[in-house]
Amino acid sequence: MKSLNARSTLSGGPRPARAVVEGRISxxxxxxxxxxxxxxxxxLVLAGLLFLAACASSAANxxxxxxxxxxxxxxxxxxxxxxxxxxxxxYQATITVLSQNRARVTQFTTDAQGTFKIGLKPGAYILVxxxxxxxxxxxxxxxxxxxxxxxxVNISYDSGIR
Length: 162
Known about the structure:
Elements: E1 19-21, E2 24-26, H1 39-60, E3 66-74, E4 89-90, E5 94-99, E6 104-109, E7 115-119, E8 123-129, E9 141-145, E10 150-158
Parallel strand pairs: 3-10
Antiparallel strand pairs: 1-2, 3-4, 3-7, 5-6, 5-8, 8-9
């Protein structure tokens, strides 16, 4: 039977390094453990706080205002008949949001029911409905987002069915 020392286990392999951190035993390898004090830990904490502050400031500017709505496609019937309804249907689409000088701000995809809600800073934007082919297609729309409000926008794609 093998004798055990401080660096081996019953299976015969090396025992992982152990350190007591606030009364608990850490089994991280020594090279992965941070010193409990000193410059490396302070730098890591500072970097984490700066990252969180950057995320919070950009999210704070876009969570109280923006756009919401639905994208539809139609007509969906090849021949329209009197007294026979043929409503437009929800359409999942990708929409590009441009600034007034046509710089790309963001792009989003609606859900399967064509609905969307996206936070944007107050300002004027151009919505560009994307299309994989010539049809279906939808025209660009100019929209204005006001501070503290979500503006409703409905986008209609032309299916090309006539």
